[in-house]
Amino acid sequence: MQIIMATGIRLSLVLSLVVTLAAACGSAGAQDFPPDPIRGKAVYGRHCLACHGRGGWGDGPDAAALKVPPANFHRLKSFLKSDEELLRTIEHGIVFSPMHSWQGQLTETERQDVLAYIRLLVQQGQ
Fold this sequence. Notes:
This protein has helices at 2-28, 37-47, 49-52, 76-79, 83-92, 108-124. With 126 residues, the chain is mainly α. It folds into 2 domains: 1-30; 34-124, Cytochrome Bc1 Complex, Chain D, domain 2 (Orthogonal Bundle). The N and C termini lie far apart (74 Å).
């Protein structure tokens, strides 16, 4: 009887731990809904437009003063980057360039949304 109770308690603890870990991993992962380029446009306007420009051509009002030019999202080099590469750049920035890390300043959802907006800009060829 004690063995059955002990096994039942252990099983209960293991199941509880699994459920807790699954919930934690689920909330720490990607957003539960698709990225929204409309919300991304607002994020882009606040944080990216000054360097990258209204259409993503790297010609924003602050671009001329930068020693390292901002990315032109329409160039093949930028266009061919995967979403993961671009998100990593947004999150961590680029060393020795004005592109700083947005981690801690933008949420994961905001980073996903702004990427969706950048992709839309390139598709529209604005």
